[in-house]
Amino acid sequence: MSSQQPVYQNYINGTFESASEHLEVLNPATGETLSRVPESRGEDVERALAAARGAQKAWAARPAVERAAYLRQIAAKIREDVPRLARIITQEQGKVTALAETEVNFTADYLDYMAEWARRIEGEIIESDRPNENIFLFRKPLGVVAGILPWNFPFFLIARKMAPALVTGNTIVIKPSEETPNNCFEFARLLDTVGLPAGVFNVVSGSGATTGNALTASPEVDMISFTGSVTTGSRIMTSAADNITKLNLELGGKAPAIVLDDADIGQAVRAIRGSRIINSGQVCNCAERVYVQRGVADEFIERMAKAMGATTYGDPLAQPDVEMGPLINQAGLDKVGAMVKTALADGAELVTGGGLGDQPRGYHYQPTVLTGCRQDMQIMRQEVFGPVLPIQVVEDMDEAIALANDSDYGLTSSIYTRNLASAMRACREIDYGETYINRENFEAMQGFHAGVRKSGIGGADGKHGLYEYTHSHVVYLET
Length: 479
What we know:
Layout: E1 10-12, E2 15-17, E3 22-26, E4 33-38, H1 42-61, H2 64-79, H3 82-93, H4 97-115, E5 124-126, E6 133-141, E7 144-148, H5 154-167, E8 171-175, H6 182-191, E9 201-203, H7 208-216, E10 223-227, H8 230-240, E11 246-250, E12 255-259, H9 265-277, E13 287-293, H10 294-309, H11 330-345, E14 349-352, E15 368-371, H12 378-381, E16 388-394, H13 397-405, E17 412-416, H14 420-429, E18 434-437, E19 449-450, E20 456-457, E21 459-460, H15 462-467, E22 470-478
Parallel strand pairs: 7-8, 7-10, 8-9, 10-11, 12-13, 12-17, 13-16, 15-16, 17-18
Antiparallel strand pairs: 1-2, 3-4, 5-6, 6-22, 11-20, 14-15, 19-21
Helix pairs in contact: 1-7, 2-4, 3-4, 4-5, 9-10
InterPro entries: Ald_DH/histidinol_DH, Ald_DH_C, Ald_DH_CS_GLU, Ald_DH_N, Aldehyde_DH_dom, Aldehyde_DH_Superfamily
Domain Aldehyde dehydrogenase: 18-474
Family: Belongs to the aldehyde dehydrogenase family.
């Protein structure tokens, strides 16, 4: 490892601390080592939590507008440094430069948006049954939040957890993914320049087995906000059970896309293809399976196969114009390849792709379209998290909705139709946290991003996401 590669330090109580053990961070497009980051032990986590606990009451005592002012300062610092931050994200995660820059800018916008809530956090006055009594409902901070991040949108997820936590008066300890921690440490370096009180924001990196377990099992944590896989979410629930710690979990998805006979096929192809190549298909809310009505199936499949087959991919830093980068690691590449092989063995037909990318290095997989898929196939039921699109032909909307709802997941869904009655029926009958009609699968910060079934507990964004970071305190006052 060259001397140019950084060795990052944990950020605890306003200070960067050296570590005795480290993990290596790799570039998924090349396999090269980028940096070394702390493999934090239990005592490191305990110090971070103690710092957050020690700072919380004074932080909550500040007016919300003062807390929000720090978020705005951080947003301004981010906007001054977009190209550098985006490059760091691309290096460690593999997303194309345009998407990395969008993530950085959206993060700044999200901090500003949550700062706007400082004057909008509301309680209630409730009518009493008794004379001379008032019932007040106050919203109060939970205390110390543990934010555990995924690797697919690592920079934005810092803000998605930190911003609502801080503006409502909580303090936070962030654990970035061991795959993509560099951007989080750069965020901490930037944040360190705005004078945020020590202990309000802390970062400890490391593996889930060590750092993650120490966080989720700690009685010093009042809420765990986690984004990641169902398997890890289930382990976190088990770890947090003894302390009855509040959980906010955004887990996996297997988003269905329904394409009806009256759809604008060009629009459907553009949006669904975007779902499969954006971030190399590594997005939990993007379309993962298609149910296309028979009348337009041939046209849809032909146009989709052509669009997917024309997708350019490679190392985004060496080839700036590519549309898609690598998968995150060898395990992700192996999983995608194995799922495609299983689907073909089970009777699916390969229309395009279906193998390793033609790049000399890195974890690249070809954009792939499979037809002849059935609901009982693994490829239609389990999350792929790669640039693979399985397609099943259906007879009508009844069949499409029934198959879409037949899933362990329930995060996002979509439907393409020109018929208003069909669109409104989808709103009523598709049982998912989100449904996108005639548009790509991507949420707005003022909405509420939440799933049902194994896709999670609670949600993020907007007013409802903000209030996830509070508890109610009801006061009965007789005068």
